[in-house]
Structures are given as C-alpha cells and as structure tokens.
Amino acid sequence: APKAIIAPSILASDFGNLSSECSNVIKEHGADWLHIDIMDGHFVPNITIGAPVVTCIRGSVERSADWSKGVFDCHMMVAEPQKWLEDFKKAGCDLYCFHYEAAVTSKDPAVSPSQLIKNIHALGMKAGVAIKPDTPADVVYPLLDGDVEKPDMVLVMTVEPGFGGQKFQARCMPKVAALRERYPELDIEVDGGLGLGTIDQAAEAGANVIVAGTAVFGAESPGEVVKMLRGTVEK
Ligand code: DX5
Ligand code: ZN
C-alpha cells in the first residue's frame, strides 16, 4: 500500500491563530498535509472558509518539492465544485477534492466527475473524489478504470460531511477495503472521527491518508497523536 499521510483537519484548530496553528502542526508536530474543509452552506448545512483564507495560510506553510509535506488538501463540500477551480488554484490548493454527489447533481450539465478531473489536472492540481457514507464505492470505479483521466485520491467519508467532532462510522470500512483490494496503489483517504480509538479499523481496511481534526488539535501532545496514527497505518 502507498505510504501513510497524516492530514490534520484545520477545522478543529484555533481560527484566531490560523497561520501559526497550520505551520506548527507540520513543523513541530510532524504532520504531512493540511486538510482544509471548505463548506458553502448549500452542499452541507455549515459554512467555513473560502479561497482568500487559504491564500493567507499558504503564506505560512511551505510545500516540499516532492509534495510529501505541506500539501493543501482542499475538501470541497460545495454544491458547485466547478465554480471554484481557478480561485483555489490561485490560493495555493494542491489537491482539489470534490464530492461525487455534488458533481452528479450540479446544475451545470457540462459538469461530470470525469470533466471535473480533467479541468483540475489542466490547472496543475491533483484531483480527489469524495463519497459520503451512503454513496457506494463502486461509483468511482469507472473513473479509476479504463482510458480516462483518473483521480489521484478517493476520500471515503466516515461521517456525514458538515461538522467536526462526530462519531466515526465503521460501516464505511468495507468500502475502503473494496477500494484497497481493487486499487493497491491508490491514495485512499478517510475523514471523520479518526483518532487513536478508530485508527486501527481504518488502517486494517487499507486507508493510507488519515484526516484527524479533533484528535490532533484537541490533544495535549499533538505530535504524539500524529506519531501514533502514522505508526498504526505503517504497521
Ligand atoms: C467533516 C470534515 C472533517 C472534519 C473532521 O465534514 O470533512 O474533515 O473536520 O473532524 P474530526 O476529525 O474532528 O471528526
Ligand atoms: Zn474534511
């Protein structure tokens, strides 16, 4: 399986000190990527931040040349994922992860998941496809098979998107296992309720990109949590 990537969700950080929270979690606590939750109040019943804030954080977080550190993993919980591509590229987004459910219900008939992936790649970003707990894993198979531009990552949500601090839904693990069996080299991300009590199940199923908000930013020693999450995935 691909290597472990620990991506703290900044949603659980202190937004009043966002820049230092973001640079510390990588430089001091040893995290790899930053998971940035973008919510528009339409796709999910909550609002977070937009591209201008991402631009500000980018100023204090460097991306390493090999993309192993400081990658901005933007989780786009938005109803119209096609709308924000250029803005997020300009803001410093590296991986633009849209929701499959939004792409297939978009008001714009020209927006399909495969077209979005092409447009994301054309801008020089990596593309991710996210699925909610009730969306089956096999909707992404056609995107990963055959002669099309493939997503670079699949995000299997382990809570209903919209809020941090929810309970991990173990019922999503068979989807991770099915994806891992079919795609041994794929980056598979899990997001929602991950922490020291749930990481075993996610690692066992085959997830390698681990999002953790509350578990990292709410910890006494975030660095210890990052290390233990990584250790479990690499075991
Ligand atoms: C939920 C977000 C998650 C969330 C994770 O809609 O996509 O990234 O911030 O937070 P925790 O780890 O606290 O469940
Ligand atoms: Zn997220």
UniProtKB/TrEMBL annotation:
> Which pathway does UniProt place it in?
Carbohydrate degradation; pentose phosphate pathway; D-xylulose 5-phosphate from D-ribulose 5-phosphate (non-oxidative stage): step 1/1
Is DNA-binding found in the keyword set? no
Matching entries from Pfam families are given as: Ribul_P_3_epim
Instruction: Tell me where on the tree of life, at the top rank, the source sits.
Output: Eukaryota
- Give the EC number(s) listed in the UniProt record: 5.1.3.1
- Residues that bind substrate: 9, 75, 162-165, 193, 213-214
**Co-factor: note:** Binds 1 divalent metal cation per subunit.
Reactions this protein catalyses: D-ribulose 5-phosphate = D-xylulose 5-phosphate
GO MF annotation terms: D-ribulose-phosphate 3-epimerase activity; metal ion binding
The Swiss-Prot or TrEMBL record lists the needed cofactor(s) as: Mn(2+); a divalent metal cation; Co(2+); Zn(2+)
Keyword terms of this UniProt record = Carbohydrate metabolism, Cobalt, Isomerase, Manganese, Metal-binding, Zinc
Asked whether the keyword Nuclease is assigned, the reply is no
Name it.
Answer: Ribulose-phosphate 3-epimerase
Q: What is the lineage of its organism?
A: Eukaryota, Fungi, Dikarya, Ascomycota, Pezizomycotina
